[in-house]
Predict the 3D structure of the following.
Amino acid sequence: MKIAKLRMEKRKGKPTTVLYDLSGVQDMKALSRTLKNLVSAGGTVKDGTIELQGEHRDRIRAYLKSEGFQVKG
């Protein structure tokens, strides 16, 4: 089962969407690239997490559920 956890953080006063505890993901960079294109925002992969600039939890949650993930947060 693929599980993803989402949270929103403030970094230097700006919202950042963070995906962490991603299980069942083989290629983090490819998933990050897909999500960045989906929400038209920048981001990075750091220490097993994907960080996206801006508040995008709703759109990312919907996309991950359509890809078979169980999304928490």
